[in-house]
Design a protein that fits this description.
about 575 residues; mainly alpha; Methane Monooxygenase Hydroxylase, Chain G, domain 1; three-stranded mixed β-sheet; two-stranded antiparallel sheet; about 60% helix; globular
């Protein structure tokens, strides 16, 4: 697949959307590598203010071209248009408009956080590159050599944010600096992540790669020191809470919807009370007479564990493969490259949340789930009851099955609808629906596994409450069993999560930092699940006794990206 924009004039929204993907890839090599468009690309992303402006200018130009389209399918509200073109046009317009809202709010000037910061992008691009042959390592070498300049561009953007008074809160700078210290190896007395990354390289390139890795490590350390000193000093007094206006901008970016935040906050509390009652019932199944916390402690002492990260990786790999085998033919059709998913250990210095990365469009790179080591304990022991539903979420039938199905549909839909147009709440909602489906199908009947699943449900509900609550500094309602009448702070949110989610401290603290650094993202899981469930029930009601759940699942995961403003309506008619 080419990264070169077409010279032909786009006459339909889908042609325009695909041309936009090619034009973005020409500017952003991270996109090129993510999509598997050019394995020889050795560029690094331009994170300077000029690089950020170039992507915004491209979004504006594509919107102008969309407005200028004439003919069938050109208008998102044209009832006579091809429905597929209308859906693509609506998505393209909404996504690019939202992207520009974020840019025009100056959010790129304060992009410092513990997850999905530009710094993580610069390392992540290396982990997505092929390294199987000698030739594969040549562009890796080129990118390592360019990494110091890429960090300089990122620093220039943050420095411009300092000049404009657009800064992240100090705790975000501190946690990113701590992660970067893990990358450098200073904490463990090793040569660092980059040096370890190039160790398997071919002998003839190893000296050059080792030198480039050393220079990359020095660049990371220098950027880290600037964050710790200059940036943190300038950020003093910057609040953690972003306020309602900024929150709405980000919430639209992550959900594809103009949310009623007060209704959403109230609904989160309704869900809290419902699931907490269910957790108390399940705790009784784990240990008669036990509270939820006592049941968790019982499982931590007596439940199944796996010793060592590598054994846990293999255990989770088998779990996903078993799920694919069990679901194929009965609830999904899972064939060809969709059956291939890898479980890996997350690189040192990652946030504590497990995550998934999708396959390249040609499937030369498979989908991958990642296990951060913070999910174990001090003895590198992993409690499986906590992680089973998470791997159904990250792997199959969750993220992997949806995202890989999208990749397989790229030519039928458009590459934009299955890649750059991805909306977080859609994919996270599907993955949370996938956990619920596995519960409905009996895969979580074991009391410990079901307590783990309900605990993850509670975590996603707590996200709705504290993410909105902290950033809008809302009051805790009178019906809450936790500090009624007080206003949310990060400290209260930490205690709330400790009392009702029961995560290991490192994972809990990473979660709170994540919500503070990515406002509006964490609420999409439960809101997305709500939309998926509503769509399924509407489709069931519409079809009556003829409703076919397997057929609905297959149509649903092949439809491409939709925002929450559209998702339920589209699911209802499948």
């Amino acid at each position: 697949m080419s990264t070169t924009p077409t010279n032909a004039v786009a006459t339909t929204p889908r042609q325009l959307a695909d041309d936009h993907v090619a034009r973005v890839a020409a500017l952003d090599p991270g996109v090129t590598t993510w999509l598997g468009l050019d394995p020889a690309d050795d560029r690094m992303p331009d994170l300077s203010p000029q690089g950020c402006d170039a992507l915004a200018d491209l979004a504006r130009d594509t919107l102008r071209r969309l407005d200028a389209l004439r003919g069938p399918g050109a208008g998102v509200d044209d009832a006579a248009a091809d429905p597929a073109e209308r859906v693509c046009a609506r998505l393209l317009r909404e996504r690019l408009s939202s992207e520009l809202q974020v840019h025009e709010a100056g959010e790129h000037f304060r992009a410092v956080r513990n997850l999905h910061a530009p710094a993580h992008q610069l390392r992540g691009i290396l982990t997505q590159m092929p390294t199987a042959t000698d030739e594969d390592w040549v562009p890796v070498l080129g990118r390592l050599r360019k990494l110091p300049a890429a960090f300089q561009g990122y620093r220039a953007t943050l420095a411009e944010g300092v000049r404009r008074g657009l800064l992240a809160a100090p705790r975000q700078a501190q946690v990113l600096a701590a992660q970067l210290t893990e990358w450098t190896g200073e904490k463990t007395g090793t040569a660092g992540w980059f040096a370890e990354f190039v160790e398997p390289a071919p002998r003839r390139l190893r000296p050059e790669l080792a030198a480039a890795a050393c220079a990359a490590t020095e660049a990371v350390a220098g950027f880290r020191d600037w964050l710790r000193t200059d940036y943190t000093a300038a950020a003093q007094g910057t609040p953690d809470a972003v306020g309602r206006e900024r929150y709405l901008v980000w919430a639209r970016q992550f959900t594809g919807s103009a949310l009623d935040l007060d209704e959403t906050y109230a609904w989160g509390w309704e869900e809290f009370h419902r699931v907490w009652a269910e957790l108390r019932t399940e705790a009784e199944r784990v240990l008669p007479g036990a509270t939820v916390e006592e049941a968790r402690e019982h499982l931590n002492r007596h439940g199944h564990t796996v010793q060592s990260a590598e054994r846990m990786r293999a255990w989770l790999q088998q779990l996903v493969e078993d799920a694919i085998a069990a679901l194929d033919g009965s609830h999904f059709d899972i064939g060809g490259p969709l059956r291939r998913v890898e479980t890996r250990i997350a690189p040192a210095g990652s946030a504590a949340a497990p995550y998934y990365s999708g396959p390249s469009l040609d499937f030369s790179r498979p989908g991958r789930t990642y296990l951060p080591l913070a999910n174990g304990d001090a003895e590198e022991r992993f409690h499986t009851w906590r992680l089973v539903s998470t791997w159904y979420h990250e792997g199959a039938p969750g993220h992997h099955l949806q995202i890989a199905s999208w990749a397989a549909e790229a030519d039928r839909l458009s590459r934009y609808q299955v890649t750059l147009g991805k909306i977080s709440a859609n994919v996270e909602g599907w993955a949370l629906y996938a956990e619920r489906l596995m519960d409905e199908l009996g895969f979580l009947d074991d009391p410990g596994r079901r307590l783990g699943y309900l605990g993850k449900q509670m975590m996603r509900i707590v996200r709705v409450i504290v993410d909105i609550g902290m950033h809008l500094e809302l009051a805790i309602p009178a019906h809450s069993p936790f500090h009624p009448g007080e206003r949310w702070t990060p400290e209260l949110a930490t205690d709330f999560m400790n009392d009702y989610v029961g995560m290991p401290p490192a994972a809990r603290d990473s979660e709170i930092l994540r919500y503070l650094g990515r406002p509006g993202q964490a609420i999409g899981y439960k809101l997305g699940e709500r939309a998926w469930l509503a769509g399924r029930e509407a489709a069931r009601a519409r079809s009556g006794s003829a409703f076919d759940l397997k057929a609905w699942h297959m149509a649903a995961i092949r439809q491409g990206s939709l925002g929450l403003d559209d998702l339920t309506d589209h699911l209802a008619v499948l």
